[in-house]
C-alpha cells in the first residue's frame, strides 16, 4: 500500500470515529407529566361535565324505552294485534335512536373523543415543545416515552428520566 492510500484511509478512520461519538438517550413519563400539569385537571373536569350530561341524556332515553315496554305490557290484553305491532314499532324506533345517540356521542369517532382531542391538543403541543427544548439542552439523540403503549421499555434507570426537566421547562413545580 502506498503512502497516499494510507493517509486517505487514516483520514477516513478519523472522520468516521468523530461521527461515532456516544449518543445520549433518555426517557420521560408523559402520563406523569400530564397528571402534574394544572391545565390537564381543568380539561378532565370539563370532559367529565360533558360526559355526565351525555350519560344523563342516554339514561333518559333508556328510561323512556323501559316505560314504553311497561306500558305496553300493562295494556297488552286491551290492544288489537295491529295496535300492539304499532307500539312495538315505536319502541324499536326509540331503541334505534338511543343506539345512534350512544354511537354518535361515545363511538370511535364520537363527539366525546373529538372534544377530548380538541381540548388536549394545545396542552400536548405545549408539553411536546418543552420536551423538544429539554432534549436540545441536554443533547439527547433520542427520548423515549415510558407511558406510551407499547413502549418496549423493560427497565429504566432513574438517572435517565427527564420528566422533571420537562416539568421544570413547563414551569411546574413537583409538589407531590
UniProtKB/TrEMBL annotation:
GO terms for biological process: protein stabilization. One of its GO terms (cellular component) is cytosol. Residues 1-22 form the signal peptide. The lineage of its organism: Bacteria, Pseudomonadati, Bacteroidota, Cytophagia, Cytophagales. It comes from Algoriphagus ornithinivorans. Keywords: Coiled coil, Signal. GO terms for molecular function: unfolded protein binding. Belongs to the Skp family. Residues 44-71 form a coiled coil. This is Periplasmic chaperone for outer membrane proteins Skp.
